[in-house]
Design brief:
The complex is a heterotrimer of chains A (489), B (273) and C (215).
Chain A: E1 7-16, E2 24-31, E3 36-40, H1 47-55, E4 64-72, E5 84-87, H2 100-111, H3 115-128, H4 144-156, E6 162-166, H5 174-190, E7 194-198, H6 202-205, E8 211-215, E9 221-226, H7 227-240, E10 263-273, E11 279-289, E12 293-297, H8 304-311, E13 319-324, H9 326-329, H10 341-347, E14 348-351, H11 364-374, H12 379-392, H13 408-420, E15 426-430, H14 438-454, E16 457-461, H15 465-471, E17 474-477, E18 484-487
Parallel strand pairs in A: 3-7, 3-8, 5-6, 6-7, 12-16, 12-17, 14-15, 15-16
Antiparallel strand pairs in A: 1-2, 1-4, 8-9, 10-11, 10-13, 17-18
Helix pairs in contact in A: 2-3, 2-4, 3-4, 4-5, 11-12, 11-13
Chain B: H1 2-9, H2 27-42, H3 47-64, H4 68-92, E1 99-103, E2 106-109, H5 110-136, H6 139-148, H7 154-164, H8 166-183, H9 191-223, H10 242-264
Antiparallel strand pairs in B: 1-2
Chain C: H1 14-18, H2 29-62, H3 77-86, H4 91-106, H5 112-131, H6 139-160, H7 167-198, H8 206-211
The chains are: A alpha/beta (489), B mainly alpha (273), C mainly alpha (215).
Chain lengths: 489, 273, 215
C-alpha cells in the first residue's frame, strides 16, 4: 500500500481572475500523511477553492493569481496529478464513459498504466466501494449514490495518496448518502491515503475523521484540532453560519394554524406517468387544502416528482381524476392540465428542483416582473409586489444581478419568489431543501410557514424528514406500488 | 429515464443483435466503407449506380441482421428527405426533353424528372449506407478506433466522447425547461413570432445548462489526469485485422460494381461534366 | 512525472508580466470539453427544432426555388459559437463536426453527408477566423465567419442534395444560405455568446471575462 500524501500550505492564497477579493489567503496548514480531515467553514470561505487547488484543477495564470506555497508531497499540485483524487458534488457530471468498467479504467489510462494492471485495479476498486456490478453495466442506469461510488472507484484505481471529497453527498437522497459514506469507510480500511472532506452535514462524517479545520472567510484558519474539541468550541458559530452541526439544528418555524382548510385540489385513483405508457405510481387519493402542507415522500423511482408535476398542471394524468375545486379554478375549468399557462400563474405556482430551469430573463428584477407583466397588471402593482418580495427575501442588493450568477441559496430563494409574485393559491415544490445549507433551510422553512399561515396551500416533494417534521401537516408516502396516507398528529 | 432517452439519443445502445459478426468489425472500417460508397455515389447523378448500391445494401442489411421494424423506425428521416429532395430537382432541374408543366421558375421536363429520381435514389443510398454504420457502432469503440487506429489526437476524441454522454441529460433538461415555461405563465402560443422567441429563449437556457454541465465534466476529467503530458495507455485495444479489410474490400467492390454497371448502361453522369 | 512550475510563489498575472494579454493556442481540457459540449447542445437543439417545426415545413421547402437556403443558418451556429468562446485554432471546425455527429446519432439526419457537411461548414468559419489571426472577435468577424460557413454549406448542399438543378436555383440557394449564415450563424451567435458571458457560465474563457465586471 502506498503512503498517504503530505499536504502543506504556507501563506497560500488564490484569487479568481476578474475578482477583486481573494477567495483564500494567508492559509497555513500542515496535514500529515494518512490523516483524515473535515474541512468546514461558511459559504465563501474558500473550501472548494483549496480542494480544487490541491487537485491541480484551478487552472493556470489565465484563471487567477496565487501567492504563497501549496505542496502535495513536496510538489506543486499540477505536478502531482495521479497522486490526488477529487470527488465532486454532482453525480451526473462525473460519469465519463458508458460502461462501468471503462469509466473506472479512465484514470488509469490517463496515467499510462499497463493494460492488464488496469483491469486488475478496476476490479479491486469496484470491490473497495462495494459496487457489485458487471463491467459492461451501462453507467446511465445507475442511481445517484451508485454514480458517486463509481467516481470514487475511478479515483481509487489511480492509487492516490490524497483523496479529496467536495460535498460528495449534497445531491443525494438519504439512502445514497449512507451508501457513499460506507464506501468511503471501506476505502479507508484499505488504503492509507490522506483524506479531506468538505460537507455541510457534519453528522455524516464526524466519526470517520479525526481532525476538523474551519476556514475563516477573512483569511487563514479559524479553528484546527480534534473533531470533538473543534465542534464543541465552534459548533454554535458554525451552525449560525449554515453548517449542519449535530446538536445545533436549525430552528423550526412557528406555526399558527388559524386558516380553515378548504379543498383546492382533489385526486381520486390517480395514476401518473412521465413517459406515455409507463406508469410510475397509481391509485393515489389525496386532497390539497388551503393553509395546509402536504409532504410527498418515498424512495427514488416512486414517482414523487411526476406526481408533483401532475398536481402542478404540467403533466397530464395517466389515469384517474385530478380535479380542481371551484375555489381554485375560478371559472377556468376543473382540469389543471387544460388551463392556459397564464391561468396557471395565479392558481398553482411551481418551484423546480433545479432553480436554473426556471430562469428566463437577465436580471433578478426582470424575473420577478415577468409573471405580473404576463398577467397585464398595472405598473404600480407590479412595482409594489416586486419590491415587497425583494425585501422579504433580502435580495434588494441583487436586483440587477444576472440570475445565473447568484449563489445556490440565492437561486433557490429567487425561484421561490418567482412563483410567489403572482400570488398563487397552491405552491408545489420539488425538493426545496436539496443541497441547501442550514441557514437557507431555516429561511425557507420560515418563509413557507408564513405562506401557510396566510392561507396558501403547499405540496412539497422531499427526502428531507426534518422539513416534513417542521412543516408537513399530512404526508403521502409513495412506496413501490401503493401509496399510504398518514395524518401528522 | 431510460426508454425515451434511448429512443431519442440512441447513442449508448446497439439496436441489432450484438452477437453478429458485423459488431466485431472495427468501427473505423465501417466508417471507411460508408465513405467509400457515399463518395462514389456523389460523383454521379444517375439512378443506375444508386439503384445497384441500394440492392447490394439491402443484401448487406439482411446479413447484418437489422429488423425491418427497427429499420423503419430509425430511417424515417432519410425516407422522408430523399423524395423531397427529388421533388425539388423535378421542379427545378436542368430542363431537357418534353415540358410537362411550367410555373414561374418551375419547369417539369423529361430531363428534370430523370434527375429528380436519380437524386432521390442517390440520397437514399448514401443515407442507408450511413445508417448501417450508426446502428452497429458503439461510440466508445469508435473513439478507441479513431484514436488508436487513425491516430487522431486522443484528447479531442475522448473529450468528445465524454461530452456525448451529456446528450441524454440535455434532452431531459430541454423537457424540464419546457414545463418550467408553462409554469411561469409564458407557455401559451402567441403566433409564430411569439413561439419563435420562446423557443430561442429556451435554446439559450439550454446552452447555459450545457456550459455548466460541461465545466463540471471538464474539472472531473482533469482531476482524473486527463490532458496531462503523460503518454496514455488504452484499457481496450482497437485492432484492425482481416475482417476489417474484408469489409473495406466489399465496399470497394460495391462501389466499383455500381460505377461499372452505370457506365456500361450508359447512364453514368459525372456531376462536374 | 511532469514537473510543472505553473504555480509560482510570487503573484503572477498574464497582464502584469508582459503588459498585454498573452495568446495561448494550446487547448486546455476545459477548451476541448466545452467545445464538444456546445456541439452536443447544438445537436440537441437541432432535434428539438425538428420535432417542433420540421414535419410541416418539409414539402413547402421542397417546392421553393432555392429560397430554402434561408433556413440553413440554423445549422451553422455551432461552429461560430465554438470559435467565439474557445478562441483557438480548430475550435469552429471541431464544434461543428461534433454538432453534425450528434444530430446524426440522435437520428435527425443520416449518413456520411452529415459528417461531410459538418466538416465543410466548420472549415468555412474556421478559415475566416484564421484570416483574422484568431485575434479579432468583433461582431463583423462573426458575421463573416457565419457567411463563410453558409457559402461552404451552399456548395456542399448543391453537390450532395441538388446536383441537377438550374443555375438560377443554384444562385438563389447559394445567396440565401450565405445571408442566413451571416445573420443567424454570425450575428445571432455573437449576441448569444455575449448573453452567455453575462450569465457567468464562461468564467474560464476570455470571452466570459471580458464581459463580467470586477466583483
Amino acid at each position: 500500500m502506498l503512503r498517504g500524501s503530505r499536504v502543506t500550505a504556507h501563506g497560500w492564497g488564490w484569487r479568481h481572475a476578474g475578482r477583486r477579493a481573494w477567495a483564500v489567503h494567508d492559509l497555513e496548514l500542515d496535514i500529515e500523511p494518512g490523516e483524515k480531515l473535515l474541512l468546514l467553514g461558511p459559504s465563501g470561505a474558500g473550501k472548494s477553492t483549496l480542494v480544487h487547488a490541491l487537485a491541480g484543477v484551478l487552472g493556470d495564470s489565465d484563471d487567477g493569481d496565487d501567492t504563497g506555497q501549496l505542496r502535495v508531497d513536496g510538489l506543486a499540485p499540477a505536478a502531482a496529478r495521479g497522486r490526488v483524487g477529487l470527488l465532486l458534488q454532482d453525480p451526473d457530471s462525473q460519469v465519463t464513459l458508458a460502461r462501468v468498467g471503462d469509466d473506472v479504467a479512465f484514470g488509469c489510462e490517463n496515467l499510462g498504466v499497463e493494460r492488464d494492471e488496469i483491469w486488475r485495479r478496476v476490479r479491486e476498486a469496484l470491490d473497495a466501494v462495494g459496487l457489485d456490478l458487471p463491467l459492461d453495466h451501462p453507467t446511465s442506469r445507475l442511481s445517484g449514490g451508485q454514480k458517486q461510488r463509481l467516481a470514487l472507484a475511478g479515483i481509487l484505481a489511480m492509487r492516490p495518496g490524497l483523496v479529496l471529497l467536495d460535498e460528495p453527498t449534497a445531491n443525494l437522497d438519504p439512502g445514497g448518502v449512507a451508501e457513499v459514506r460506507d464506501a468511503v469507510a471501506r476505502m479507508l480500511e484499505r488504503t492509507r491515503a490522506t483524506l479531506i472532506v468538505i460537507e455541510h452535514r457534519v453528522g455524516t462524517w464526524q466519526d470517520l475523521v479525526d481532525r476538523v479545520v474551519v476556514l475563516d472567510p477573512e483569511g487563514g484558519v479559524l479553528a484546527d484540532g480534534g473533531t470533538r474539541e473543534v465542534l464543541a468550541g465552534q459548533g454554535a458559530q458554525l451552525a449560525a453560519r449554515g453548517v449542519w452541526v449535530p446538536g445545533h439544528p436549525p430552528a423550526h418555524p412557528q406555526r399558527q394554524r388559524q386558516v380553515p382548510a378548504h379543498q383546492l385540489l382533489v385526486a381520486q385513483d390517480l395514476s401518473v406517468s412521465r413517459i406515455p405508457g409507463v406508469v410510475v405510481a397509481s391509485d393515489i387519493r389525496l386532497t390539497v387544502n388551503t393553509g395546509r402542507a402536504l409532504a410527498v415522500t418515498g424512495p427514488n423511482g416512486s414517482g414523487k416528482s411526476t406526481l408533483a408535476l401532475n398536481l402542478a398542471g404540467l403533466l397530464a394524468p395517466a389515469a384517474g381524476e385530478l380535479r380542481a375545486t371551484d375555489r381554485l379554478a375560478q371559472g377556468a375549468g376543473s382540469e389543471p392540465i387544460r388551463w392556459k399557462s397564464r391561468e396557471l400563474l395565479t392558481r398553482i405556482g411551481t418551484v423546480f428542483q433545479d432553480p436554473e430551469h426556471q430562469f428566463l430573463t437577465s436580471t433578478v428584477r426582470a424575473e420577478l416582473e415577468l409573471g405580473p407583466r404576463t398577467l397585464k397588471l398595472p405598473e404600480e402593482e407590479i412595482r409594489a409586489r416586486v419590491d415587497e418580495l425583494l425585501q422579504r427575501l433580502r435580495m434588494e442588493h441583487l436586483a440587477q444581478a444576472n440570475p445565473f450568477t447568484l449563489s445556490g441559496g440565492e437561486k433557490r430563494r429567487l425561484s421561490v419568489a418567482t412563483a410567489l409574485v403572482s400570488k398563487p393559491q397552491v405552491l408545489v415544490l420539488d425538493e426545496p431543501t436539496f443541497g441547501q445549507d442550514a441557514q437557507t433551510w431555516q429561511e425557507l422553512a420560515a418563509l413557507l410557514a408564513g405562506l401557510l399561515d396566510e392561507g396558501t396551500a403547499l405540496v412539497a416533494v422531499t427526502h428531507d424528514l426534518d422539513f416534513v417534521a417542521a412543516l408537513g401537516d399530512r404526508t403521502l408516502e409513495l412506496p413501490a406500488p401503493h401509496p399510504v396516507e398518514q395524518v401528522r398528529s | 429515464m431510460s426508454r425515451a432517452t434511448k429512443e431519442t439519443t440512441g447513442v449508448a445502445t446497439r439496436i441489432a443483435d450484438a452477437t453478429r459478426p458485423i459488431h466485431r468489425v472495427n468501427p473505423v472500417a465501417k466508417l471507411a466503407a460508408a465513405f467509400i460508397i457515399s463518395l462514389t455515389l456523389i460523383a454521379s447523378i444517375d439512378w443506375v449506380s444508386a439503384g445497384v448500391v441500394l440492392l447490394l445494401e439491402a443484401a448487406l442489411f439482411g446479413w447484418v441482421g437489422i429488423r425491418l421494424s427497427v429499420f423503419l423506425r430509425r430511417s424515417w428521416p432519410i425516407l422522408l428527405a430523399s423524395p423531397l429532395a427529388g421533388l425539388t430537382t423535378v421542379l427545378y432541374g436542368e430542363p431537357s426533353g418534353q415540358l410537362y408543366w411550367e410555373f414561374l421558375f418551375i419547369h417539369v421536363t423529361d430531363g428534370s424528372i430523370y434527375l429528380g429520381v436519380a437524386t432521390a435514389l442517390r440520397i437514399l443510398a448514401i443515407g442507408l449506407a450511413g445508417m448501417v454504420m450508426f446502428l452497429t457502432i458503439d461510440p466508445t469503440d469508435l473513439a478507441d478506433g479513431l484514436a488508436q487506429v487513425l491516430r487522431l489526437p486522443a484528447r479531442f476524441v475522448l473529450g468528445a466522447l465524454a461530452a456525448m454522454r451529456l446528450a441524454g441529460l440535455l434532452v431531459e433538461d430541454w423537457r424540464s425547461l419546457g414545463l418550467a415555461r408553462r409554469a411561469r405563465g409564458v407557455g401559451d402560443s402567441q403566433g409564430f413570432v411569439g413561439k419563435l422567441r420562446l423557443w430561442l429563449n429556451q435554446a439559450f437556457s439550454l446552452l447555459v445548462l450545457a456550459l455548466r454541465r460541461g465545466s463540471k465534466l471538464a474539472t472531473a476529467m482533469e482531476a482524473r489526469g486527463f490532458g496531462a503530458d503523460t503518454r496514455r495507455s488504452w484499457a481496450r485495444e482497437s485492432v484492425f485485422v482481416g475482417r476489417d479489410w474484408l469489409l473495406i474490400a466489399i465496399s470497394v467492390l460495391i462501389a466499383a460494381t455500381a460505377v461499372a454497371v452505370s457506365i456500361w448502361s450508359g447512364h453514368w453522369n459525372f456531376i462536374f461534366g | 512525472m511532469v514537473h510543472d512550475s505553473r504555480i509560482e510563489s510570487i503573484p503572477t498575472s498574464a497582464e502584469t508580466r508582459t503588459g498585454k494579454p498573452r495568446r495561448n493556442f494550446r487547448w486546455r481540457v476545459v477548451d476541448i470539453v466545452i467545445a464538444a459540449v456546445i456541439g452536443v447542445a447544438a445537436g440537441v437543439l437541432f432535434w428539438a427544432w425538428g420535432i417542433a417545426y420540421e414535419g410541416v415545413s418539409g414539402p413547402i421547402k421542397a417546392a421553393l426555388p432555392g429560397l430554402q437556403g434561408i433556413f440553413g443558418g440554423g445549422w451553422l451556429f455551432a461552429g461560430v459559437v465554438g470559435g467565439l468562446i474557445i478562441r483557438k485554432p480548430g475550435a469552429a471546425l471541431f464544434t461543428e463536426v461534433i454538432a453534425a455527429a450528434v444530430s446524426a446519432a440522435i437520428g435527425t439526419s443520416w449518413g456520411v453527408t452529415t459528417i461531410t457537411s459538418g466538416l465543410v461548414q466548420g472549415l468555412g468559419a474556421e478559415i475566416v477566423l484564421a484570416l483574422f489571426l484568431y485575434a479579432n472577435w468583433r461582431i463583423y468577424v462573426a458575421i463573416l465567419a457565419g457567411a463563410a460557413a453558409g457559402m461552404a454549406a451552399g456548395v456542399h448542399d448543391l453537390i450532395v442534395w441538388y446536383p441537377g438543378v438550374t443555375w438560377m436555383f443554384r444562385a438563389i440557394y447559394f445567396t440565401s444560405v450565405t445571408l442566413s449564415g451571416a445573420v443567424i450563424a454570425g450575428a445571432l451567435s455573437w449576441f448569444a455568446v455575449r448573453g452567455l458571458a453575462r450569465t457567468g457560465a464562461l468564467g474560464r474563457f476570455a470571452a466570459g471575462r471580458e464581459v463580467t465586471a470586477d466583483v
